[in-house]
């Protein structure tokens, strides 16, 4: 893997074993600061290739930093842009469900980890009106909004915590943009496997770790300075390592590819130009966004009938499927083992 050697990472003994494979030999990729909450390092496991914070954040660190990020983002992103994201997620849900249907997969009971607005699952229900959706999140407001806007049942829990009563209850688990945030990825994937029935499917998207971590490595190796980590990406996945781990757990890949080459064309993941370097750590004060400016965030409530064009919900489904495929289909698909591209798309089936 040439891109590893290009930055001459140094071996180190990590503080905590890898949460995917349990090994301790590793290489140091970067030193970084998560807000003013924790100083840590990003290391790559020599065993499985997973890149991870070491020491890992605690659940309290994550909760505080994630709230600060949410407040900062809410103040930065306009209401209009937030609305557009809801519509996009709805269309992505339609497109994903249509893809399942074309493979003869018709889920009845779905669990989504970290559902956000819930619009992805709601888009899926346009294709599968009978789909029963349960959402899991630690933030009560997320569960309240999913219930209010879509009628989804909610479970307040971290995905790491095993809930025995969920074992074998679902034929689809969705984890979009979640796996990179969880502090115990091994436990989350084990739980997803347990909660599925044999033959059930796990769907996820997560950033290509090599591209995502590149900016931190540049700042550390070439700049000699600690980088700034504001969004809690605590796992950076190696395409081959992630697949191997899922297969070892008892999954088989149905679809596994990387898509979206735009950031790569702009130099992310390979260029050493200074504009690619992560900002130097400023140890941003998390209190500024958690205590001091939290009150400025308005509780945006979006009315589904106003956000979504009427024909999305009531018009021709074949036409909507065509639009969603046009907007969100991925024509260029690359094997994640090559570790290029922006986002990894996975659909894995639990073995019978
Ligand atoms: Zn490992």
> What is the CATH architecture annotation?
3-Layer(aba) Sandwich
Share in helix: 25-40%
Specify the CATH homologous superfamily. Answer: Vaccinia Virus protein VP39
Instruction: Say how many strands there are.
Output: 13
Number of helices: 13
Low-pLDDT ranges: 1-5
Bound molecules: zinc ion
Number of domains: 1
**Strand line-up in the sheet with most strands:** 7-6-5-8-9-13-12
How many strands, which pairing sense, and closed or not: the largest β-sheet? Answer: 7 strands, mixed
Mean pLDDT: 94
| CATH topology grouping | Rossmann fold
Could you describe the 3D structure shown?
With 352 residues, the chain is of the alpha/beta class. The chain has a single domain, classed as Rossmann fold (3-Layer(aba) Sandwich), CATH 3.40.50.150. The chain is 38% helix and 23% strand. It has 13 helices and 13 strands. A seven-stranded mixed sheet has the order 7-6-5-8-9-13-12, sandwiched between helices. Helix 6 links the parallel strand 8 and strand 9 (196-207). The model is unreliable at 1-5 (pLDDT under 50). The site of zinc ion has 8 residues, from loops.
Per-chain topology:
Blueprint: H1 2-5, E1 10-13, E2 25-34, E3 38-45, E4 51-54, H2 59-76, H3 79-102, E5 109-113, H4 119-127, E6 132-137, H5 140-150, E7 153-156, E8 170-176, H6 185-195, E9 196-207, H7 209-221, E10 227-229, E11 235-236, H8 239-249, E12 251-259, H9 262-265, H10 286-292, H11 304-307, H12 310-314, H13 317-328, E13 343-350
Parallel strand pairs: 2-10, 5-6, 5-8, 6-7, 8-9
Antiparallel strand pairs: 1-2, 2-3, 3-4, 4-11, 9-13, 12-13
Helix pairs in contact: 2-10, 3-4, 3-13
The chain binds zinc ion.
């Amino acid at each position: 893997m040439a891109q590893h050697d290009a930055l001459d990472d140094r071996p180190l003994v990590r503080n905590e074993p890898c949460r995917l494979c349990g090994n301790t030999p590793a290489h140091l990729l970067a030193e970084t600061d998560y807000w003013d909450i924790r100083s840590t390092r990003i290391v790559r496991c020599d065993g499985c290739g997973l890149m991870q914070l070491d020491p890992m954040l605690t659940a309290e660190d994550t909760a505080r930093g994630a709230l600060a990020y949410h407040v900062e983002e809410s103040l930065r992103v306009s209401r209009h842009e937030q609305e557009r994201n809801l519509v996009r997620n709805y269309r992505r849900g339609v497109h994903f469900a249509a893809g399942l249907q074309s493979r003869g997969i018709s889920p009845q009971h779905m669990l989504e980890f970290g559902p956000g607005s819930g619009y992805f699952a709601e888009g899926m229900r346009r294709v599968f009106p009978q789909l029963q959706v349960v959402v899991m999140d630690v933030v009560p407001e997320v569960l309240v909004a999913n219930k209010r806007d879509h009628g989804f049942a909610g479970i307040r829990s971290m995905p790491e915590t095993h809930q025995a009563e969920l074992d074998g209850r679902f034929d689809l688990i969705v984890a979009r943009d979640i796996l990179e945030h969880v502090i115990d990825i091994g436990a989350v994937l084990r739980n997803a496997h347990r909660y599925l029935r044999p033959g059930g499917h796990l769907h996820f998207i997560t950033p290509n770790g090599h591209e995502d971590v590149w900016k931190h490595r540049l700042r550390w190796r070439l700049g000699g300075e600690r980088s700034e980590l504001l969004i809690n990406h605590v796992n950076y996945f190696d395409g081959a390592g992630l697949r191997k781990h899922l297969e070892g757990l008892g999954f088989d890949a149905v679809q596994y590819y990387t898509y979206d080459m735009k950031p790569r064309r702009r130099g992310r993941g390979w260029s050493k130009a200074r504009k690619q370097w992560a900002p130097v750590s400023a140890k941003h004060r998390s209190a500024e966004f958690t205590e001091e400016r939290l009150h400025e965030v308005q509780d945006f409530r979006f009315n589904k009938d106003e956000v979504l064009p009427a024909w999305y919900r009531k018009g021709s489904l074949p036409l909507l499927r065509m639009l969603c495929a046009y907007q969100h289909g991925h024509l260029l698909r690359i094997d994640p083992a090559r570790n290029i591209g922006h986002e990894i798309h996975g659909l894995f089936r639990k073995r019978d």
